[in-house]
């Protein structure tokens, strides 16, 4: 076959060469023909005559959004989106269909049982897929089976793991459709007001929030929404992709409040719980000594252990949004989220911007010294022997190991996994003291653990 193809191309090439050799025209005649063809095609192009109309077969993929004054077109778009989302919702498995799927899986389990889990092989898996109905077709594929295949010696997968996978997928699609209903722009993202409406209407469905007074709803919604926007909108565009909301764990934390038996520890660690929201709002009210609903720099200085440096607080009020020099609750929430989550990149970005006074994009020895001098002054006020900056500077650079030995970028802080320690050293006397006495604290912890063991 290959030989035949080779001889064919050889024949074509020889014939082409023979044709060229027979062309007895001189160079001027060939040049004249080339010029004639060029003139012909150029004239057609300038006159707008299109010879190639292949573009007409390309399907339309861009539709201009209706303008604000095109009320009818806007209404038509909203209605068509609503119909589309309803159709997508009907394509999802309902509770009865999920229950039927579980019965089918349980009926087709393949022995022996692995531990406490019922298992199913690929052949039985496909049989269930045929009986489960068209809505389940996308779940019964080789790709899904291989994802759930682990170390079973018989090549089976866990029925429970597969069912949980299906449940998770259905939940994600349901949630995406639910969030899309609040996407007024229809562009796949939620604005702050859209997310506020979503959470406000979600509150009655969360048993753990039953005790909230309705007068507190607006503050609760503000508290909840700020976490989404602080971490998912680092560029402060005022909108978040629905895809990003689904990908993060915040929605899981929020919907965890559906559990009527949620433990006290889980509630305290969950930003969206009633005790957590009341704690943050209560702290804000306690700091607001003049009861004007806003915080001055002096009032904010008592935040936490009251050991944040005045230099750092000056930068907070210079960079953050204030009203007549005072901070409102929304700005305070960003401040709290940054200081309570110092290990997170979004929190480090918030604090780094405050430390980068000259907006250079990096911290140098000057900026480190500027902030650490405030720590040294606080140490003197508390009767402590000040630590030399040179020693602290060397330790910071050793911890971070920046690409440039004279500059520390935000990415350097994130990559080092020591960013929280570094910023604490520079802005908080208590954070610096904890770092300086870390060995003593570890020793005390070990001693207390030893005592506990002896007592038992």
From TrEMBL:
Organism this protein belongs to: Xenotaenia resolanae
Keyword GTP-binding: no
PANTHER family per UniProt: SERINE/THREONINE-PROTEIN PHOSPHATASE 2A REGULATORY SUBUNIT B'' SUBUNIT GAMMA, SERINE_THREONINE-PROTEIN PHOSPHATASE 2A REGULATORY SUBUNIT B'' SUBUNIT GAMMA
GN (gene name): PPP2R3C
Every PP2A regulatory subunit B'' EF-hand domain range: 184-260
Record's protein name: Serine/threonine-protein phosphatase 2A regulatory subunit B'' subunit gamma
Broad class of the protein's primary localization: cytoplasm
Intracellular or extracellular location(s): Cytoplasm; Nucleus
InterPro entries given in the database record: EF-hand-dom_pair, EF-hand_13, EF_Hand_1_Ca_BS, PPP2R3C
Alphabetical keyword list: Calcium, Cytoplasm, Metal-binding, Nucleus, Repeat
